[in-house]
Design goal:
Layout lengths: L8 E10 L2 E9 L17 E7 L9 E8 L6 E3 L5 E5 L2 E10 L4 E8 L7 E2 L11 E4 L2 E3 L4 E4 L6 E6 L3 E5 L2 E7 L6 E6 L7 E7 L10 E5 L2 E8 L11 E6 L15
Antiparallel strand pairs: 1-2, 2-3, 3-4, 5-7, 6-7, 7-8, 8-9, 10-11, 12-13, 14-15, 15-16, 16-17, 18-19, 19-20
The structure holds beta-L-arabinofuranose.
The site of beta-L-arabinofuranose has 9 residues, from strand 1.
């Protein structure tokens, strides 16, 4: 499967169908001399680009809409713009992103735009109560998947934060999909409520080339698509990843047929 985007390195794709196009909101990987470490310092991203296409089947050209938000323009951010996501409500578009604050703590911020392709204007402070990493003690941190209902203005959390990662609804069931961390699978579970409980349903994708695996799932023109990344384009350089896409196929019982990374 060739990378979708080759002019820059991209990772952590969140894909959405907006206004009849598929928009991809990825991390923008860049060259760095920082050695691989358990803090993830080597993932030292400084801005976001947005990409879109009019068709995945057949694949039409993927347009790079350019830089839509920079770390230097976000007052509370020190570095590391990581895996973003987007949402729309009442004609506005919201870009949500984790980044380190001035104390080095990962928090989640939001930036607002009038078009899916941005540009996006950041809120001056991160979302209250939004920690992207959970401390485990002894300077260890875990990426904890969580979900929270947003306030009506889309800018803060409403109520308690609960568990989740990527969520979509298909045939009346919520599908909660996630990376299994050190075992490098993408897996999913299903349930009747967006906040669970969920029952394990199987694997989506086998491990990719590279340490990280990260995905999103979107329905577009009647088909379901898995967006993910690997390090094929950089020949295995772990912090230089590229977004790919595969059509998801379901078996007779509606379960995802596990895919191999290629
Ligand atoms: O891109 C930086 C981090 O690597 C992401 O937040 C993780 O999901 C992993 O892909």
């Amino acid at each position: 499967m060739p990378p979708l985007i080759t002019n820059v390195y991209t990772a952590d794709p969140s894909a959405h169908a907006f206004n009849g196009r598929v928009y991809i909101y990825p991390s923008h990987d860049r060259e760095t001399d920082i050695q691989f470490n358990d803090n993830g310092d080597q993932y030292d991203m400084a801005d976001y680009h947005v990409f879109s296409t009019s068709s995945l089947d057949p694949l039409e050209p993927v347009i790079d809409h350019g830089v839509v938000l920079k770390a230097e323009d976000i007052p509370w951010v020190s570095k590391q713009l990581w895996a973003p996501d987007a949402a729309t409500k009442n004609g506005k578009f919201y870009l949500y992103f984790p980044a380190r604050d001035k104390e080095g703590i990962f928090r989640i911020g939001v930036a607002v735009g009038n078009k899916p392709e941005g540009p996006f204007t950041p809120e001056p402070e991160p979302i209250k109560g939004a920690l992207a990493l959970t401390p485990l003690g002894d300077d260890k941190f875990a990426l904890a998947p969580r979900v929270a209902k947003l306030t009506d203005d889309m800018l803060q959390f409403q109520g308690e934060v609960q568990e989740a990662a990527w969520l979509y609804k298909k045939d009346g069931l919520y599908h909660f999909s996630y990376s299994t961390g050190d075992t490098h699978y993408l897996a999913y579970a299903t349930g009747t409520s967006p906040v669970g409980p969920f029952t394990y349903a199987g694997r989506i994708l086998e491990p990719v080339l590279g340490w990280t695996t990260h995905h999103s799932i979107v329905e577009f023109n009647g088909k379901w698509w898995l967006f993910y990344h690997d390090c094929e384009l950089s020949k295995g350089v772990d912090h230089l990843r590229s977004v790919k896409v595969k059509e998801i196929k379901f078996d007779a019982e509606g379960k995802i047929i596990t895919m191999k990374s290629d």
